[in-house]
């Protein structure tokens, strides 16, 4: 009797999208939500860093052009 209840509970649980795993303890939705929250937190942190660097103002003068190698070149 107990084993039939376990099977019914496992069948009511949504399967894993890739593997089709029906086990209830395999909570793939919670794991995916945690990974997405971590990505959102990292994106928010990098946006905060970008805003902080924009508030510093221009690092180089307008008459300096940065080459691909990173060497300033005077254009006057």
Task: Summarize the structure in words.
The chain is built from two helices and two strands. The protein is mainly alpha-helical and about 80 residues long. The chain has one domain. A two-stranded antiparallel sheet has the order 1-2. The longest helix has 27 residues. It is rod-shaped and about 55 Å long.
Give short descriptive properties of this protein.
single chain, 76 residues, mainly alpha, two-stranded antiparallel ribbon, 2 strands, 50% helix, 8% strand, rod-shaped
Question: What percentage of residues falls in helices of 4 or more residues?
Answer: 40-55%
User: In one word, what is the shape?
Assistant: rod-shaped
Series of H and E elements: HHEE
Largest beta-sheet details? 2 strands, antiparallel
Low-confidence segments, given as residue ranges, are none
- Quaternary structure state of the chains depicted: single chain
- Across the major sheet, the strand order is 1-2
- Measured distance between first and last alpha carbons: 89 Å
Domain tally: 1
Give the strand tally: 2
Nearest-integer average pLDDT: 66
- Assign the structural class, choosing from mainly alpha, mainly beta, alpha/beta, alpha+beta, or little secondary structure: mainly alpha
The share of residues in extended strands comes to 5-15%
Radius of gyration from CA coordinates: 27 Å
**SS element count, helices:** 2
